Amino acid sequence: MALAPTASGALPDDGLAATPPMGWNSWNTFGCNINEQLIRETADAIVASGMRDAGYRYVNIDDCWAEPERNAEGELEPHHERFPSGIKAMADYVHGKGLKLGIYTSAGTRTCADTMPGALGHEEVDARTFAEWEVDFLKYDNCNNQGVPATERYAAMGDALRATGRPIVYSVCEWGENAPWEWAPDVGAHLWRTTDDIKPAWDTGNSDGFPMGVVNIIEANGKLAEHAGPGDWNDPDMLEVGVHDVEGYPGLTDTEAVAHFSMWSIMAAPLIAGNDVREMPENVKQILTNREVIAVNQDAAGKQGAPVRDDGDQEVWVKELADGSRAVALFNRGGEAATIATTAEEIGAKQAGRYVLRDLWAHTDTETGGEISAEVPSHGVALLRVTPKR
């Protein structure tokens, strides 16, 4: 049964995204070079690599999956060469692996790659089609929107998805153009993009606009913590961990990739991998499957971390966790290694005589009377869990 708005006009929590969604998306590495064999092999690799057991559930097909035009009934059809077995067969395969299937379209007349029809004016038929195919996640982009107000376009698809009665996670990919964090929950969205597209780069020099690097997005998304919570997530775009040599971008160093994953986790961001998981080096696998870091992201309190101190290139970020502990990121944006320090008082930790500091990457414990510091490499992070000692 579809959910009705409350008296305030907001939609009640449907329980679909109590924690930030985790999964994989085809776009960052493959773009339009997708087919059903790739999606099947990726689902297999998500299971075999341990990613599924670490929490990754969604296998999301991005742009270019459909025929260039609708059929005589006005419906979308899977591309006859790329997906000859159809999307329903793809969903069945993915579900059989204990995973969920995601699909893509745009809130416009054409999708962003201009290879297939968008859903503008066809929201009901497309939502019904996705439900019949047993799709579990919809990424709804913003291209070719004909100037129709964003709230109108995204509300129409939200209404259509709820009317199907199928639980489908709704991802509004509006690029933060019209402050979607202010209205997306009211159209049924579970997550909404807060920035323009990410690329596998540390810093593109763009603080607002295409394309953006990891550090540029952190700066923008970090200001929006008050808008996030269970069922409603700020989405700073997909992960670039393990993505290399795309559109002239060489990719992140290991240090930068660790910082990227750490900061997405402390920001309670959706963790949607974009690498080729079929050929994943061990170092990339270790980053993406670090369960202690994932636990920070998936914490039941659902609070987005935020900076409590910014000393230029060095920042201290804090995320309050459900058990009363604090996740702390000592974040070094600069070009040189630096010692970054804070205190239990500054991070808002419960008063105690001693604290246990758990290093979530080294997997080691130390104790402190309240002083917290680490030598942090350039473009790196020290990620700690600070717990009062009983």
Automatic annotation (TrEMBL):
Domain of life from the UniProt record: Bacteria
Keyword Transmembrane helix: no
UniProt-listed CDD domains: GH27
Alphabetized UniProt keyword annotations: Disulfide bond, Glycosidase, Hydrolase, Signal
Residues covered by the Alpha galactosidase C-terminal domain: 311-386
InterPro entries: Aldolase_TIM, GH, Glyco_hydro_27, Glyco_hydro_27/36_CS, Glyco_hydro_b, Melibiase_C
Keyword Disulfide bond: yes
Pfam families hit by this protein: Melibiase_2, Melibiase_C
Gene3D superfamilies registered for this protein in UniProt: Aldolase class I, Golgi alpha-mannosidase II
EC numbers: 3.2.1.22
UniProt cross-references to SUPFAM superfamilies, sorted A to Z: (Trans)glycosidases (SSF51445), Glycosyl hydrolase domain (SSF51011)
Catalytic activity: Hydrolysis of terminal, non-reducing alpha-D-galactose residues in alpha-D-galactosides, including galactose oligosaccharides, galactomannans and galactolipids
Family recorded in the similarity comment: Belongs to the glycosyl hydrolase 27 family.
Protein name: Alpha-galactosidase
Species, as recorded: Saccharopolyspora taberi
